Amino acid sequence: SKPAVTVLGLGDMGSALARALLKAGYPTTVWNRTPEKAKPLVEAGATHAPTVADAVTASRLVIVCLLDYKSVTDVLDTARDALTGKVLVNLTNGTPGQARELATRYDVDYLDGGIMAIPPMIGAPPAFVFYSGSRSAFDTNKQVFEAFGGTNYVSTDAGFAALYDIGLLSGMYGMFVGALHALSLVTSAGVPAQEFAPLLKQYVSAMLGSIDGMAEQIDKQDYAIDVVSNIGMQSEAYVNLTLSAEELGMSPELLAPLGPLMARRVADGHGHEDIAGVVEILKKGKK
Ligand code: NDP
């Protein structure tokens, strides 16, 4: 028979997780601060626990998915004794440092997770979750986690699921920055966004290939490898991005910050190298 699982937190994501567990046939106990949210899950076969301690006691595997880390510790601190010896899987979004702290706060076998999906995607790939922390907790419960979609265990360091999660989100938001600026630019000139969008998608997709070369340069800290358009040239051309936006009366503030970073790199004598060298400035921190 399938092992029992407890889900703490029945927001949009927690509810989707609990629903996926029920669908996969796991006896599921649920708890939420606002108990009404348990109703549809109970109708789908879940057991509602009146307190956090009751919910934690019901299963060896406890999954928590709340708003933030503050809510996680507020909730779990009320069930410290019940948690002893459990497998705790925290799927709440946070920072690597927050995850590492939580990993040692309770007497549990700890796994942290980063959910790379929105609630309606939960239940099958392409939804997937990064896991980090206890290797044995992951191996023992991998099948349960497959109810949510794909699994990707990244490290025994509990902070790495959050690191990978934030890393992918950073790439996504960077793409959003470019797309929002570009669509603002063309619509400011009267070109419908939907007319420009196919061109934008095609171009951005083609440019994705440059990530591999950047990664090689960054690992080797050698930004002179395979340079096809050096940062000196790009830094000059980048000024035109800001100027074009300003000509149209739009704010360049979303895209502007890269300009001064490139200029600094050029001023530091790296104008003949590739744009990836900007990483060296970023890694030094705020100056
Ligand atoms: P919701 O806002 O839908 O739900 C928040 C949950 O946290 C509710 O169960 C709420 O309880 C609970 N909560 C908030 N504060 C407290 C508190 N102080 N004490 C007890 N419970 C509290 O958020 P989601 O379910 O969408 O998100 C949950 C986590 O999943 C977040 O960390 C989010 O970043 C992450 N995530 C969400 C994604 C999404 O697309 N939704 C995608 C990937 C990750 P109550 O019902 O009583 O208010």
Report the average pLDDT across residues. 97
Q: Give the percentage of residues in beta strands.
A: 5-15%
Biggest sheet details: 8 strands, mixed
What separation lies between the terminal Cα atoms?
A: 58 Å
Spatial order of the strands in the main sheet?
3-2-1-4-5-6-7-8
Helix content: 40-55%
| Ligands bound to this protein structure | NADPH dihydro-nicotinamide-adenine-dinucleotide phosphate
Net shape: elongated
Q: Which fold does the CATH topology of the largest domain refer to?
A: Rossmann fold
Number of H/I helices = 13
Organism: Kibdelosporangium phytohabitans
Protein name: 6-phosphogluconate dehydrogenase
Keywords: Oxidoreductase
InterPro entries: 6PGD_dom2, 6PGDH_NADP-bd, HIBADH-related, HIBADH-related_NP60_sf, NAD(P)-bd_dom_sf, RedAm-like_C
